[in-house]
Amino acid sequence: MTFPDPFDDPPWAMQLAVQVEKAAPPVHGAVCEAAAMAVVRLLTDPRSTEPEGEWHARVRRWESGRIRKVARRARGVRWREAQELPGVTVDHDGARVRAFVPGPVDEVPPQLAKLQVAGLDLVREESKPPPEPPYAALALNPGVTMSTGKSAAQSGHAAQLLLRQGSRRDVAAWLAAGARVHLADDVPWRECVRQATAVVRDGGFTEVPPGTMTAIAWLVTGRR
Length: 224
Hints:
Blueprint lengths: L11 E8 L8 H16 L2 H4 L6 H8 L5 E6 L1 H7 L4 E6 L2 E6 L2 E2 L5 H4 L21 E6 L7 H18 L2 H9 L4 E3 L5 H7 L2 E4 L11 E8 L4
Helix pairs in contact: 1-6
């Protein structure tokens, strides 16, 4: 189901491409984690953070409004073509996701426009043990049904909000350790919502109604 976009000027979005080869597709959780890490690495890349960086103006323009993200799937030559566009690719636990520099949704480059948006749903496995702290813990709302593509976009939102809203000390330690992310699918949702640093309420463009709480995130520092 698609809901109308209440903002037209036109809206901007960050495109995400997920490599899904027929012979060895990634699993749902790894894709969500890789998407979150790709978003964070693009936003903390000097090309985004430095005022003279080549991505700085576009990232700043996008973050000044809705932080919309669109996840697409790619394979074979389509994936290789997409690598020609500015962005950051993350290889993680069998998943590969590339985050691209944001732009207007009505000016998506041909290499991305031809990639399929809907229908990305991958095998869901049990959550793996988390890495050593510090890392970002993400959780998706167990009461909301979302495809892998939608979940990956929401994971990216959660990680981005955590990057911007977490304490400077904890965020700095997280980034220094590689900006690792763990998708926790076996946590008490209501309790985690109360302690979460970042809470994502969806804009309602696809799959869920506007205002739906889709994802949360917090930093695990290892400090007592």
